[in-house]
UniProtKB/TrEMBL annotation:
Highest taxon, organism lineage: Bacteria
Keywords per UniProt: DNA-binding, Repressor, Transcription, Transcription regulation
Transcription as UniProt keyword: yes
Pfam families: TetR_C_6 (PF13977), TetR_N (PF00440)
Keyword Repressor: yes
DNA-binding region per Swiss-Prot/TrEMBL record: 29-48
Originating species: Nonomuraea zeae
Protein name: TetR family transcriptional regulator
Limits of the HTH tetR-type domain: 6-66
Listed GO MF terms: DNA-binding transcription factor activity; transcription cis-regulatory region binding
Entry-linked Gene3D superfamilies: Tetracycline Repressor, domain 2
């Protein structure tokens, strides 16, 4: 039998996220990820084949785990709208500086120019929208949003708000990101609020 893995793929992909935040996907190297993970570059080659293989695994993992912030938010908040606010803030938790966002935007270049990466990015976007729509539907059922709210259209607007708020925060940065995200989300939802204090 082979030796057991002492570092999980999950830990390696978390190290990959940190390295991408520092160097961007174009500038990151297997050596940088290996150093972040406490491994040798050869170990990464054995597991993922190449830098491209590692980045594709990272993209696939992001898509597979996109539901987790929404699940955590549901567990922590009884209000669907408060769960949505928390989930949206959690989605942006990996970004604390404009430079880290630049790393994510560098990944967007891969998503737009490489079909394999684009498939992962498109699925990630669809799953995110579905999770947003589910919480919005729960908010309508709970009376937090008006019954006339068109959940699918509003989910699209919330997703656009999230992405736009990230960019504007990176450029202007007058508020902490979590506060800027909540403020932008509340502005998008305000016309649809149902019960007072929702």
């Amino acid at each position: 039998m082979g030796r057991p893995r002492t570092t999980s793929d999950e830990a390696i992909l978390q190290a990959t996220a940190r390295a991408i935040g520092r160097y961007g996907p174009q500038g990151v190297t297997l050596a940088a990820v290996a150093q972040e993970a406490g491994l040798s570059p050869a170990t990464l080659v054995q597991r993922f084949g190449s830098k491209r293989g590692l980045l594709l695994a990272f993209a696939a993992h992001a898509t597979e785990t996109v539901r987790l912030p929404f699940q955590r938010a549901r567990e922590d908040h009884g209000s669907p709208l408060e769960a949505l606010r928390a989930a949206v803030v959690d989605l942006a938790a990996g970004v604390s500086t404009p430079e880290e966002l630049a790393g994510s935007l560098g990944f967007l270049q891969l998503d737009l120019t490489d079909a394999e990466f684009r498939r992962h990015a498109a699925e990630h976007a669809l799953r995110t929208r579905d999770e947003i729509a589910a919480l919005l539907a729960e908010a309508v059922a709970a009376g937090e949003l008006a019954e006339t709210a068109e959940v699918d259209r509003l989910a699209h607007a919330v997703q656009v708000t999230y992405n736009g708020a990230l960019i504007l925060w990176a450029l202007t940065g007058s508020l902490p990101l979590a506060a800027a995200m909540r403020d932008a989300l509340d502005q998008t939802l305000r016309p649809y609020l149902g019960a007072p204090g929702a």
